[in-house]
Each structure stands twice: as C-alpha cells, then as structure tokens.
Amino acid sequence: MNASELQPIEQFLQTHAPFDVLSTALIARCAREMTIGYYAKASAFVEFDPVNPKLYLVRSGAFEVRDPQGVLVDRVAEGECFGFSTLLSGEKVVNKVAILEDGLVYHIPQALFTDLRSQNRQFDTFFTRAFAQRLRNEHKFKAKDLTTTSRITNLMSQTPISIEANASVQQAAKLMRDHRVSSVLVLHDQQLVGILTDRDLRNRVLAEGLDGQASVDKVMTKQPQTVASNALVFEAMLLMSEHNIHHLPVVDNQQAKGMITSTDILRSQSSQPLLLIGEIDRQASIERLIHVSKQIPVLLQNLISADARAEEIGRVLTSVTDALTRRLIVLNQQLLGKAPMAFCWLAFGSQGRQDQVACSDQDNGLLLAHEPDEFAAAYFDKLTHAVCKGLDQCGYIYCPGDIMAQNPQWRLSLQQWQQKFKKWVMSPEPKALMHASIFFDMRAVFGPQTLFDELQDSVMSHTKDNDIFLAGMAGNSLQQTPPLGFFRKFVLERDGSEVKGMDLKHKGSALINDIARVYALSAGIKEVNTAKRIRALMDANIINRKDALNLADAHEFIAHMRLANQGYQANHNLVVSNYLKPQDLSSLLRHQLRDAFKVVHDAQSGLKLKFTRSF
Amino acid sequence: MVNHLWLKSRFWLDSLSKQQGSHERHLIEYQQSLTQQFTRTIYDADLMAIDLEMTGLDPMKDQIISIGLVPISKGTIPLVKAQHLMISIDGSVGQSATVHGIVDHQLQDALPVDAAMEWLLKATQGHILVAHHAPMDMAFIQQSLQNVFGQRLLLPFIDTLMIEKSRYLRQHGQLVEGCVRLGQSRERYHLPVYAGHNALIDAIACAELFLAQVSALGGSTQIKCHELVGLSK
C-alpha cells in the first residue's frame, strides 16, 4: 500500500509538535502503526491498559489529567499528548484522565514511541522536557508570578542584529552603533558561531592593541551560552548570573532568533505594577510622566503572559491609571495654585469599574462641592483641560463621546450632578438611559470621599426599588445577546471574507457588567467593580450562590480570553481588538467559552424575568 | 433476531453446499466464518469497515475502482491492518476521477476484478462489514460476486447511515437534507474533517463514526452484533 494514502492522518502529525520534527518516512510509519480510539464523555475516565502502555495523542476532544489526590496536572486538547509520564518513567499509571469532551485519540504503542525517540533527538527532548516540566510545575494551575512565568519570547529583540564571522571589528562596531545595541550575533553559514559585545571590543581589541581590521572571529566569544525562545525569563536570569554574562542569544532549532540582555530583563522587572506606580508618584514633570507611562503596555503584556487573573489585571491597570490621574492633578495644581473649593475627579465606565485593559479611552468628570463663581469656573476649566490633555499624551485617548471633565457639561456641582442623575432615573427614556449607563459605574479617583458619598447616596436613593427605571435599564441590557450560535457557524462569510469573530467585549463582558449593574442599582449596592458587585449581591442573597459564582466565573473567563487574545494579537503585530475567532481555539477552550456564554444567557433570562415582567 | 439470522444463514449454506465447486467451497467457508459473530458484543466481534469508490451509482452498469478496508477490533481501529486496493476497469475512470482523485495512470498497478474479489473475500473473511450507506456498497459487491463467481452471498452488514438516521429521528423528529451524510454525521460527534477523499480514508472515517455511535448507544460491551446487523442477498 502506498504510504501517503493515510494522508489526512499524516498531515495532522506533520503539523503538531513534536511530530512535526520527524522525517516523512517516520511520519508515515507512525501513522501506519497507530490505532485509533474513541472516548466518550459518558465513560468519564480513560481506561488504561496496564500491560501495554501507550502514548495518547488527542485528535479531537478534551481531557484533564489529575493526580491521585485529584489535583489538576494538565489539560490536554487537540494535538496534545498524555500518557508519556508512564512511558518515560516505566512506573504504572497513577494519574487519572477525565474525558471532558468526546474525542478521537491516536494510540502510539510503546515500542513505536521508543523507536521514534531513539531516531529523533528533538522528538525525544520534547517529551523528556514535558515530563520534567510536569514534575516541576505540579502547581502550574495555581497563581503565578511574573519573573518565574513569563517567557523569553516576550522580551527578546525580535530582529537579531548579526554579522559574518570574517567581517572586521570596525564593521561590527559600526553596525552596533547604527542599531544602538551593545552586542551582535556572529554567524557563519547561517549558523551562530559566537557573539561580540562592547566588553569584547574593549578587552580583546582596544586593550590588546588590535586595529579595526582584525576579524570578528578572532575576538568574539565563541560558542556562547544560548537560550531557547520558549524558556522562562527566570532561566535566562539564572544562566546570566551563573556565567556572569549580560547577553544571551536566543536560539531555536539551531537558528538564531534574537538576543536577550540583562537590560531587557531589568526593564521588564521595572514595569511591575508597584514599581511603576512608585515611579509615577516620583515624577516631577508632566514630560517625565508621559515617558514613564510608555511602560504601561509592557506591564499589560507581562501580566498577560504571566497568566494573571483578568480581574487582577483590570485592577492593576486601573490603579496605574488612577495614580497617573492623581499625579497629573497634583502637578497641574502646582502650576495653577490651590483649588478654590473641594472637588472630586470622577472616573466612569471601565476605569470606574476597575476593569481597564489595552486601548482604553478616557471617561471622566468633575464633581464640585458647590456652584463655581467666574474665577473658580476658569480655574477648573484650565485644570481639567491640562489633566485630560496629559492623560491623552500618556496613552488614554480623548473620549470620542466627549465624556470628559474638560467638557463643561460634565464639570458640575454636587447639586447639578444630583439633578442630572435624578432626571435619568425618573424619566427613563431608553435611549438616554443607554448613554447614561456608564455614569452609574462611577468612582472618585481624587478628592474627598465624603463629597462623592453624598452624590452616590442620592443616586442610590432614587434607583433602589425603582421598578420603571430598572425595567428600562434591564431592557437595554437585553438588546445584546451572547454569541451562542456562533460556534456552529461557518468561519467564512458568504462573500468569502473572513468573519471578524466573536466580540468578547460587547457580547460578553459588557453584558455581565450590565446585569451586575441593574441588580446593584436595584439593591442600593455601592460597589462598581463587576466582580465585587456580584459578590455583594450574593452576600445579600439577591442572586443565589450558585448563579452568582457561575456568573463571576464566566465574567473572569471571558475577560481572560479577551486579554489572552489581545496579548496574542500584540505579540504577533496584529491589530488589537475584542474579536476572537473560535477556530483559533482548542476544543477545550471552545467548550469552556461556550459554557461561559451559556451562563450569560441564563443570567439574562433571570434579569428579564425579575425586572421586565410587568412592562 | 439471532435465531432468525442464524436460520437464514444455515439455509443459505445448505443451498450452497449442494453445488460442489472450489468457488462454492470458498464461499461456504466465508459464510460459515460469519455466523459465529452475531451473538458477540460489538467489543468482541470482528468487524471490518469498508468503503468502495465506484465509477457511478448503478451496480448494473458501473464498476468498483477501489476498496478501502480497516478492521474494528476491541473498540479500536488498528491502522496497521488497513488496506487499500485499486481495481482495473474497462474503459476510463471518466467523470468520477474528479471526486475520488484517482486518475487512470494510478490504476495501472490495479488488480483485475476477479482477482480483486478473491482478495476481498480473503481479506474480509470472518468479519462483519461496516459501511456508511452500506446497501449501496453491498449491491456493488454482490454484483461483482455474481459476475465473477456466478453466485451471490448472504452478506451481513452494519450500516452507520441507518444507525445515524434512527438516532437523528429520535432526537429531532424529522430528517434534514444531508444530515446523515458521512461528513455531517461525523460533525455531530466532534470527529475531525478529513481533507482526503479515497476509499481507505472513507473507510477509516466510517470506522471512527461507528465507534462514536456505539459509545453514544451505550458502549461496545453493551450491544450485541445482531442488534445492528442487516442482511444483503
């Protein structure tokens, strides 16, 4: 029989690590000697054959590996393997593999697995490393911290600067000057043979009295230490301190991919949130503040690659925005003089809810203790314009809807704000309400809390148990529904163009924000952060425990997917957006996302029943 | 049902054994090897997924051009036992080449139809055949047996399309066009989409669908063969 007749199966192997490193002949052999099994969710666990251990390669479906104590060890989806621990250790199977989603699995018998490992070193390394990783990362699914979990790929220079080994040191020095780098990779026949650093130029060229024509390979550091792009930053730090070096070429499959320096690592450390906020508070000029704010996107990337909880990421990023806003107010007050009266800087929308992420725009306003006279009006006009401009320069672009403190419409006294809210609440025109919803997620970022409390108390007194208003808000929030049907649809539009994907913000997170807001306003709960609102609603017995926990989980999961997707987009130089393509997901994630959307759907039904039934 | 199948087989065997040629002995052996399968569970039975590629849909006029076979044993599909045979035909592959991706020059190593039928009987002896839309494949096999041996067989088979049809009807009340085709049926069980389209890949695809169907029906150890088997004369 012709080997290529199993082509779809071979193709699958060819496109999934580590099988992708095998030769065509080995792939064909592997496909030939596998057996195919089907695992149904109904049977709960994979039954292992103790006599003939195998490697299990998941073709479709989703699985979970748990240790005898029931702790999650690994999640396995399409293209991933389980069973290798037993094959490598020779010990009997102790972990249990739960079937989360029906699936097709390729079985690779032990003899074949051993043979493939002996015939291909990379294939072997993949599994021994995965095995070691699993032993190390017993707590992989628990909280992670930044240095130990972010990977080299996120920090390294993407375009490596390199030079041929027979070039002169002068050429090398020129190249380094032109690219403003402190080291270059030295290549011969496309292979990395060494690196040349500032220190080499000083110690081995200048100090030795060589001239600029000396060839690079005479003075370079030969066979340098290298690191793989998927290694942990932590591992790179260890290598550097062990060998007392500051530059590490990043090498994958013998190909130089880039360079990582101790400075890169240092810089990534300084964009940790506490350090960044500290730095913001120390800056004495607006220019410096703008400069420091350039680290915010790096912070976001770090948090995402560290797999932090989405809720934490939102809180951390928002606290940076808050710090920046406060610092801008203080610095501008130093220029303009003391304020003529007490005031609060209000944050609305995502900043109010503390769930800011990438590409946020400004939504803010000013709350004045009382009606300003002409002088005070002029003062606050200048102050707000300066702060909003500062925020814009720091990356928080002007609000397209002009909901900003610099707009006199949103720079009001306590009494005016109270009237404004009263008007929204008492005569709820659906359309006006829709635009007003972000105002109900408000928080004071600067100014006396007592002043803000006065405003919030009066708002709550109007919204609490106000059936007509709540019905209007609920009705608005039911205009959008989660994309449950999307999973079944085609990946291409009828005209052949690619579909944009699922809008995780407007059809996911925003819906949960809406639901939590309506409930919170109905019960007079002052929290504005969605997770906190849900928790408060659960504690007050307004939403039952199970539904509340489900909704909070769904909120976290959807927000997490959105952040992870944006992190991926940013890493791959794609336009950062809220759209996720379901076909890019593993079936496990797809499965979980579908569950999350179902929770949103159910919560919407509950909202409808509770608030809109009589209208 | 068991008795009924068994009786029918017996009767067929008796009528065959009255004629005494080598072909007939061959066919008797083949037939005998099947009867013991009926009472076994799907898990323990010897099954063989089969798919044929033909030049058209009419068994009287059209010809088989390739056969894909893969056994189903103990709830798994051992690819090492998968087989793919090309059959040389009269005339040209013609229109259907665009569907199967088989062009004439690939058929040069092919067996003539009489050798191919002997090969088929040997390869599938002792196995109940499993096919998607099995009556069609059975009709082509019977016609070829008739042409080659002058004799049809009593062929038990399992039809994954029939299984799917009754399952779909149970769940949805009525059928939708195309809903029980191989691809659509597989989709419902989250089975992967195979880009390739030849007799062997389709036989594998059918075998996988069968495993999925059986586990949806309660598992391979819970169902006996005769519950799913149909007969072709």
UniProtKB/TrEMBL annotation, chain A:
Q: What is this protein called?
A: DUF294 nucleotidyltransferase-like domain-containing protein
| Taxonomic superkingdom | Bacteria
Query: What InterPro entries would the database entry show?
Result: CBS_dom, CBS_dom_sf, cNMP-bd_dom, cNMP-bd_dom_sf, Diverse_CBS-Domain, DUF294_put_nucleoTrafse_sb-bd, GlnD_Uridyltrans_N, RmlC-like_jellyroll
Pfam families in alphabetical order: CBS (PF00571), cNMP_binding (PF00027), DUF294 (PF03445), DUF294_C (PF10335)
The residue ranges of the CBS domain are 156-212, 220-276
State the UniProt keywords alphabetically: CBS domain
Q: Which residues form the Cyclic nucleotide-binding domain?
A: 18-116
Q: Gene3D superfamilies annotated for this entry?
A: CBS-domain, Jelly Rolls
UniProtKB/TrEMBL annotation, chain B:
Which superkingdom is the protein from? Bacteria
Q: Which UniProt keywords apply?
A: Exonuclease, Hydrolase, Nuclease
Q: Which GO terms describe its molecular function?
A: exonuclease activity
| Any Pfam family the entry gives | RNase_T
Q: Where is the Exonuclease domain?
A: 46-219
Q: What is this protein called?
A: Exonuclease domain-containing protein
Species assigned in the record:
Shewanella subflava
Q: What is the lineage of its organism?
A: Bacteria, Pseudomonadati, Pseudomonadota, Gammaproteobacteria, Alteromonadales
